[in-house]
Fold:
Amino acid sequence: MLTLAVDRVGWLVGDASAVLAASAWPGSSAVVAARFATAFAIAQSMHYVVWIGFFPRYAPEATAAFERAFPALRRPWFAVGVTVLAVAMTALFLTSWADGRTVYGLVTAYHVYLEFPLLVFLAFGGAVVARPRATVGAT
Structure:
């Protein structure tokens, strides 16, 4: 059940109502903001489920092609580096929620430039853009 009680996370995020308010458009009710925050959390969790669970299990050929393209990601030092960064980000989130959000946002903002055009492309059915053809002797 979705509740507006923020006392459980207040010790971590401070004014949790500000976190909720940032999840919806200005002037929205707290209920709408809580619903958006919940939807965003579920969507982000599904993002990780797809990339970490679904693709390796149900699309092994795509996973293998990706691993061939980026062989350094298979080396043990990469897994150690990811683990160290995850622990550091967790510590930052637990000690300063606002700073953790800022750093996480900076580190992960690049994917917006990759995923947003893809979402637009998928939303509009992948319409083909006609290109003018060059002809010999045309000016």
User: Anything to note?
Assistant: The two ends are 67 Å apart (CA to CA).
